[in-house]
Design goal:
8 strands, eight-stranded antiparallel sheet
Length: 205
């Protein structure tokens, strides 16, 4: 057998490699086009994410904030531990054309340091107790979820059939940093939920 020089050996290896690749890629088949570049990831945060704050609003969801001697002047519901940087909003609101009667009571906090769902439960129990004049254990067991609005998170409402005012409804929302509740006299849970989501759009920023 003849002894081949380095150049001959390299040429033989190159030819064998070419034949092998040709066998794996039959003639007539073009290479697949490169995949298109991936679209850039969106920089928009999902609804309910990020830090939100609460602030009193002169109008919320078409309701008018009560002022003057008839407005709520204290904090009827224990908001839980308040730390530096947190804001507490307590206000009552009149429906369109309302000049007397029970108002819609709102209580909310922002920059919640713990799980906002737990803070909402705390507010909820306090508001149930307030609505029932300290006659309830304040455990919300019949709440139903509703559309929370553009800030996401969760929004739930329950009726208070055990109340002296059997058509009263309590709603609560929570997201990543805020928790709030409201008492709606003489309404249905579905109507209260729609109104609460509309109020939220003016009270949360």
């Amino acid at each position: 057998m003849p002894i081949r020089g380095p150049r001959t050996l390299l040429a033989t290896i190159a030819l064998a490699t070419t034949l092998t690749l040709t066998a794996c890629d039959p003639a007539g088949e073009a290479e697949a086009p490169p995949a298109p570049p991936a679209a850039p990831a969106s920089s928009t945060s999902p609804a309910g994410s990020g830090k939100h704050t609460l602030a009193e609003a002169a109008t919320a969801g078409g309701l008018t904030k009560a002022t003057g001697a008839g407005a709520v002047s204290d904090v009827p519901v224990d908001p839980g531990e308040m730390r530096d940087g947190m804001h507490l909003v307590v206000a009552d609101y009149n429906r369109a054309g309302q000049t007397s009667g029970r108002r819609i009571l709102f209580v909310g906090v922002d920059s919640v340091p713990e799980d906002p769902n737990k803070r909402r439960e705390h507010l909820w129990r306090g508001l149930i107790d307030y609505a029932l004049q300290n006659g309830s254990t304040g455990t919300p067991t019949t709440a139903k979820p509703y559309e929370p609005g553009p800030f996401g998170g969760s929004l739930e409402c329950l009726s208070l059939p055990e109340s002296a005012n059997a058509t009263d409804v309590i709603c609560g929302w929570s997201d990543t940093t805020t928790a709030a509740v409201a008492l709606f006299p003489r309404t249905t849970p579905a109507d209260a939920a729609r109104l609460f989501a509309a109020m939220r759009a003016d009270l949360e920023h």
